[in-house]
Amino acid sequence: MGIHPILSGEILLHLDRMGHSDSVVIADAHFPAHRLGKRVIELPTLTTPEVVAAIRTVLPLDDAPAIDLMRSPDERVLEVQWELIDAARTDVDTVRFVDRFEYYDVAERAYLIIRTGETRTYANALLRKGLVNDFTTYGTSPDDAVFSASGFETEFEENG
Questions:
Q1: Helix or strand (DSSP H, E) at 139
Q2: Whether pLDDT at 90 is above 60
Q3: Which of helix, strand or coil describes residue 12?
Q4: At residue 153, what are phi and psi to the nearest 5 degrees?
Q5: By percentage, how much of the chain surpasses pLDDT 90?
Q6: Mean pLDDT of 47-75
Q7: Residue 145: helix, strand or coil by DSSP?
Q8: pLDDT mean over 4-21
């Protein structure tokens, strides 16, 4: 395992500085990121599901609602939104759907906005950071975890 290649040092630094319940917005190319965000990172060659999946390898989700998605005009869950839910390794029960202008208000309070090159509309996801309480890789199956806190202690004692 290792660090996902999408996650630059700058992204990791900001994710680390976020506190419990702070949020990161992964935005599509149409999103007014620079008007709303204090900290904006541009990833113009990537899609929002790709970036959400990478972030979830290091970021635990908060309690529900862990994710905010922008509600589509006809209130259907769009294909790209299902992809975002899958990329976050969660289900629709942990998602809050927010009207467009309310979403902008919520996004303005985000710690970080990452704007992608995603051209599909309503392809924005706001993730809330949960508690970082062990050394497990988040968003992957337990079999894929790098190591647990107890495993680290054992390895440290053996190599100590």
A1: none
A2: yes
A3: helix
A4: -60, -40
A5: 74
A6: 94
A7: coil
A8: 95
What number is the average pLDDT over the span 112-128?
A: 97
Contact 100, 128 (CB under 8 A): no
Q: Which of 4, 20, 30, 34 is catalytic?
A: 20
20 included as an active-site residue: yes
Strands, E assignment, 14-145: 23-27, 40-43, 67-70, 95-98, 112-116, 125-128
Angle among Cα 50, 55, 18 to the nearest 5 degrees reads: 145
Q: In angstroms, rounded to a whole number, what is the distance separating the alpha carbons of residues 160 and 153?
A: 10
**How is residue 26 written in tokens?**
């992964």
Structure token pair of residue 134 = 């062990």
Strands (DSSP E) contained in the chain are 23-27, 40-43, 67-70, 95-98, 112-116, 125-128
**CA gap 36, 27 in Å, rounded:** 11
* Distance from the Cα of residue 130 to its chain's centroid: 11
Q: What's the chain's average pLDDT? A: 86
Does the N-terminal peptide bond of residue 142 adopt cis geometry, omega within 30 degrees of 0?
no
Q: Across residues 115-128, what is the average pLDDT? A: 97
Q: How far is Cα 40 from Cα 63, in angstroms, rounded to an integer?
A: 25
Average pLDDT (19-39) is 96
* Tokens, residue 61: 């989700």
